[in-house]
C-alpha cells in the first residue's frame, strides 16, 4: 500500500513539475546591452540562465550581465585593446567583434601550434599564451574558467598580458557559492580529464566532445585570484530586469591590474 502511495505521489509531483514548466512564461520589455536595442526578453522555461532570451539577438542573461559590466567599468571600451578567449557567435562577443577598435579572438585548438592563425582565429592556450606582456586593456572570457586544468597559471598569464589599469572581466558559474572551491577534474598523462567526482561536460563550439568541467568555484575565487596574481578582484552581481538580467549563477568577476601611480 505504501509503495503504491509513494508511486502515486511521485507521479503527481512529476506532473505538477511538468505542468509548471509547460505553463511557464516570463516576459519583460527592456534594453539589451548586447544588441543595443529596445527589445522583449522572454522565457518559456523557469531556468532563466539558458532560456531568458533577447527577442532580437537571442543573448542570455550572463552575456548581458557581462556586456553591461564591461560598459559600466570601462565606458570607453570601444577604443580599447581587447582579447576574448573562446568567444561564441552571440551576445557580448558579437558586439565586441563589431564595435571594438581592436578585438583579438582566440581559441585553443589542441593540434595546432600556439600563436598561429587557424581560419582567422589565433590559437592560444590560456595557461601558456604567446602574447607579449602588457598587451591588452581588457581580457574577456565567458564561462571558460571552470574548464581550465591549471587556473592559477591561466590567471597569472591573463594578468601578465594586461596593461596597468586593465582588467579581466568574466562570467563563471560560482556553483559552490559560500562553500570552498573544489577541483572537479585533473588532466591524466594522455591529456584526458580524470574526474574526481561525477563527470561533467559543457558544450563547446569548437569541440563536438564538449569541455570537461575542471573546477567548481566558490566565492573564494576572489582570494584564489588575489593570491596567484596580486590583482584587485571584485564580484559584480546584477539583477536588473530593465536590461533583461535575472538568473541563477550570473556573477561577473572583475580582476583588475592596478594602475600605475598618477594613472586613472
Ligand atoms: Zn539583444
Intertermini distance: 73 Å
How many domains, in number, for the residues? 1
- The CATH homologous superfamily is named Vaccinia Virus protein VP39
CATH domain class: Alpha Beta
Structural class: alpha/beta
Rough outline: globular
Give the C-alpha Rg.
20 Å
Average pLDDT for all residues: 93
In percent, how helical is the residue content? 25-40%
Characterize the main sheet. 8 strands, mixed
Question: Can you count the helices?
Answer: 6
Bound molecules: zinc ion
- List the helices and strands in order: HEEHEHEHEEEEHEEEEEEEHEE
> If strands are numbered along the chain, what order do they take across the biggest sheet?
6-7-5-4-8-9-17-16
Strands, count: 17
- Tell me the fraction of residues in β-strands, as a range: 25-35%
What fold name goes in the CATH topology slot?
Rossmann fold
As residue ranges, the low-confidence spans are none
Gross CATH architecture: 3-Layer(aba) Sandwich
Amino acid at each position: 500500500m505504501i509503495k503504491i502511495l509513494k508511486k502515486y505521489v511521485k507521479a503527481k509531483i512529476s506532473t505538477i513539475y511538468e505542468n509548471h514548466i509547460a505553463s511557464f512564461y516570463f516576459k519583460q520589455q527592456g534594453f539589451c546591452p548586447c544588441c543595443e536595442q529596445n527589445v522583449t526578453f522572454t522565457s518559456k522555461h523557469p531556468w532563466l540562465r539558458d532560456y531568458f532570451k533577447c527577442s532580437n539577438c537571442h543573448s542570455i542573461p550572463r552575456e548581458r550581465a557581462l556586456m553591461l559590466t564591461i560598459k559600466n567599468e570601462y565606458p570607453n571600451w570601444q577604443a580599447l585593446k581587447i582579447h576574448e578567449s573562446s568567444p561564441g557567435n552571440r551576445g557580448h562577443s558579437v558586439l565586441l567583434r563589431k564595435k571594438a577598435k581592436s578585438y583579438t579572438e582566440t581559441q585553443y585548438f589542441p593540434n595546432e601550434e600556439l600563436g598561429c592563425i587557424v581560419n582567422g582565429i589565433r590559437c592560444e592556450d590560456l595557461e601558456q599564451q604567446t602574447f607579449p606582456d602588457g598587451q591588452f586593456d581588457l581580457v574577456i572570457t565567458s564561462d571558460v574558467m571552470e574548464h581550465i586544468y591549471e587556473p592559477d597559471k591561466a590567471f597569472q598569464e591573463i594578468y601578465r598580458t594586461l596593461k596597468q589599469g586593465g582588467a579581466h572581466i568574466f562570467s563563471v558559474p560560482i556553483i559552490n557559492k559560500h562553500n570552498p572551491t573544489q577541483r572537479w577534474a585533473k588532466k591524466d598523462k594522455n591529456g584526458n580529464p580524470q574526474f574526481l567526482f561525477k563527470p561533467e561536460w559543457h558544450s563547446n563550439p569548437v569541440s563536438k566532445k564538449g569541455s570537461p568541467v575542471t573546477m567548481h568555484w566558490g566565492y573564494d575565487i576572489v582570494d584564489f585570484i588575489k593570491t596567484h596574481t596580486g590583482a584587485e578582484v571584485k564580484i559584480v552581481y546584477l539583477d536588473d530586469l530593465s536590461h533583461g538580467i535575472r538568473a541563477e549563477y550570473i556573477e561577473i568577476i572583475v580582476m583588475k591590474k592596478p594602475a600605475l601611480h598618477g594613472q586613472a
